[in-house]
Amino acid sequence: MNDYSIPPIKSPVCTQEQYAIDAGHTLSTVRAQVDRGYLPTIKIGRYRMINLLQLSRMCLEADPAKPKQK
Question: Residues near 39 by Cβ (< 8 Å), separated by ≥ 6?
Answer without folding.
Answer: 19, 30, 33, 50, 55
